[in-house]
Amino acid sequence: MQRRTWISALALGALVALGGCSTPKVTDYAAQRPVLDMREYFNGTLDAYGVFTDRSGAVVKRFTVVMDCSWNGNEGVLDEAFTYSDGTHQRRVWRLTAQADGRFVGRADDVVGQAQGQQSGNAFQWAYTLSLPVDGRVIEVQFDDWMYLMDERVMLNRAAMSKFGVRLGDVT
Questions:
Q1: How many C-beta neighbours within 10 Å does residue 121 have?
Q2: C-beta separation of 105 from 86 below 8 A
Q3: What are the residues whose beta carbons fall under 8 Å from the beta carbon of 12, sequence distance 6 or more?
Q4: Please, where are the H alpha helices in the chain?
């Protein structure tokens, strides 16, 4: 009986500890400045630089992106041209729709279904599933993609990539 009580207490303690851990919500950044306006920031030609790191933090691949962005009312196009450190190239064309309350939906040819996003304060958070070519096959991975406007010219972006809830790495 004592063993069962001890295991129950241990399990309850673990649940309480985990309950205190919560993931950030984009609305947590509502008071942060400067305020991000997606249609203003993603307009014209933008250059981006990044790395993909595996679970251990090792850089697996570096890349550059040239984005041509335009908006017509609530409809936006972000045409991304990637060049990777191994010499490969990739193109992704996002078609975004701005909705109420800072929400956005997006589609791209390699996105499964629809990306869902929300902007608040200086932050934007996307969630989507991407069909990713890996070693001659295509796998579907989930992205939890966060962007933070630092000033009118600089945005930092970090995306956690996972499959079946297991973190595969990060894109920064």
A1: 19
A2: no
A3: none
A4: 2-20, 38-41
Q: From 117, 132, 123, 118, select the one nearest 162 (Cα to Cα).
A: 132
Count how many Cα atoms sit within 13 Å of the Cα of residue 159 in the half-sphere of its side chain: 19
For residues 161 and 52, give the distance between their C-alpha atoms in angstroms, rounded to a whole number. Answer: 10
* Beta strand residue intervals within 21-88, DSSP E: 44-54, 59-72, 75-84
**Phi, psi (rounded to 5 degrees) for 102:** 75, 15
Q: How far apart are CA 2 and CA 30, in angstroms?
A: 49
pLDDT tens per residue, range 134-152: 889 999 999 999 999 999 9
Task: Please confirm whether the linkage preceding 133 is cis (ω < 30° from 0).
Answer: no
Tokens encoding 137: 């096959």
CA distance 144 to 163: 11
pTM of this structure: 0.85
Report residue 153 as tokens: 């010219």
In terms of residues, how long is the chain?
172
